[in-house]
Specification:
The chain is of the alpha/beta class and about 140 residues long. The chain has one domain: 3-Layer(aba) Sandwich (Rossmann fold). Helix content is about 25%, strand content about 30%. It has a seven-stranded mixed beta sheet with strand order 1-7-6-2-5-4-3, with helices on one face. Helix 1 crosses helix 2. The longest helix is centred in the first third of the chain and has 11 residues.
Length: about 140
């Protein structure tokens, strides 16, 4: 387990850079943490570090967003907060996303634990203060 400490939003770009370096070779990421812990904000920083050229936003209502990169690849960002059953993920065609060769970032991953690809890197965000976060990465 590795930990990244973020003391302000100004440190997010550096934290994302550290994250990308420590998880090199992996493309599937499951994010855990309570509402407001910074999952979406951190994923935005990671996508930017990976070269996302499109606007990175929370896919809360669409469930999945697709971002193009300047490397001609695609990043997939899931927010499963509104998922009520595993069947909804089957209807969405999660297999194509989870088991493809693209980067996949899954918020509220606990809602799909039994469907997560292997290997998947698990990331837990913990709010210490309104500005400070601890990001634990199981590599």
């Amino acid at each position: 387990m590795k930990t990244i400490e973020v003391n302000s939003t100004e440190e997010l770009a550096y934290a994302a850079q550290q994250f990308v370096m420590m998880t090199q070779g992996h493309k599937k990421f499951a994010f855990y943490g309570p509402m407001g812990s910074g999952k979406t904000t951190f994923i935005k920083a990671i996508c930017k570090e990976l070269g996302a050229t499109s606007l990175v936003t929370s896919p809360t209502f669409s469930l999945v967003n697709e971002y193009n990169t300047d490397h001609e690849s695609v990043l997939y960002h899931f927010d499963l907060y509104r998922i009520n059953s595993i069947e909804e993920l089957y209807d969405l065609g999660f297999e194509e996303y989870f088991y493809g060769n693209q980067y996949v970032f899954i918020e509220w991953a606990e809602k799909a634990e039994e469907l997560l690809p292997d290997p998947v890197i698990r990331i837990t965000l913990q709010e210490i203060t309104p500005e400070k976060r601890l990001i634990s990465v199981a590599v």
